[in-house]
Amino acid sequence: MLPSQAPFPATRFRRLRASPAVRALVQETALGPADFIWPVFVRDGDGVVEPVPSMPGVNRLSVDKVVEAAHEAAALGIPAICLFPYTDPALKTEDCAEAWNPQNLSNTATRAIKHAVPGLAVMTDVALDPYNIHGHDGFVEDGEIVNDRTVEALVKQALSQAEAGADIIGPSDMMDGRIGAMRSALESAGHHNVLLLSYAAKYASAFYGPFRDAVGASGALKGDKKTYQMEPGNSDEAMRLIARDLQEGADMVMVKPGMPYLDICRRAKDMFGAPTFAYQVSGEYAMLAGAGERGWVDGDKVMLESLTSFKRAGCDGVLTYFAPAAARLLNG
Ligand code: PBG
Prior knowledge:
It is a single chain. The chain has eleven helices and twelve strands. The protein is of the alpha/beta class. An eight-stranded parallel beta barrel has the order 1-4-5-8-9-10-11-12, surrounded by nine helices. It has a two-stranded antiparallel ribbon with strand order 6-7. α3 (105-116) links the parallel β4 and β5 (121-126). Ligand PBG binds next to α6.
């Protein structure tokens, strides 16, 4: 107890919990639709809504349906949507050229959303895994995920996304030097206001499993991502990575996954004070949504409680597949 606190019974903490009105007055952390970035999976076709089996309630959407989702997000007060393409395996090549094709799924969806719902921020993903026959975020040479050649490709990918109208570029690849390279390329090309939300502290996590199914990368992936994503036992390293990315020109930083790494979120916010986000990833979503579906937990309540924990841990916002469902509940 803090020294300023009078002993019982002068202090009774239950006084502050005795009614909904008083509880609302003293609530420290509030959650609202403006805290969410909604990740959506984009696929080809027209009028397609294809369920992702390991993520109950999440679908792969064709571009026209993504535009409908964008309208829904705006109506719910969700400020941003984040696009992840499910790429036709026939378009996956050794050189990953589809990643910077101006007409690829991600760029096509970005243009369609910015045309239909210009006020909604569009975030895009920079990494080669949706386009790579090896399922890795970078080029593979003799079994090694090479850094510098990958960064050159990521810069091309980021520029094509900015060209298509992306507001926020999210490098999720964990290569070294990519934030600085992207920032200077964006500045040179006149994209002064395009934001970089760096996946600065991204762990080599088993919680990404359902996502890899959703984007069709799990079959392709050979080996693991431990030479570029972080060891789950590390915390100081996360601070060094965040410091580095902010110095290279990141506007915002991300911790990923979310719930098992809330200590990293808190530490990052306290240490840097930068706009800090967490990604409540696919495996976290699957656990909560799956248990909710079976009636093992109250799905709505664990959803809101889990999302509140990110705000309490110091995050400014959270990428979550729950975004529309949570926003609907929060809007009453
Ligand atoms: C890959 C990427 C991943 C996620 C976002 N971008 C998976 C990975 O690193 O293998 C995971 C998101 C989720 O699990 O919801 N660039």
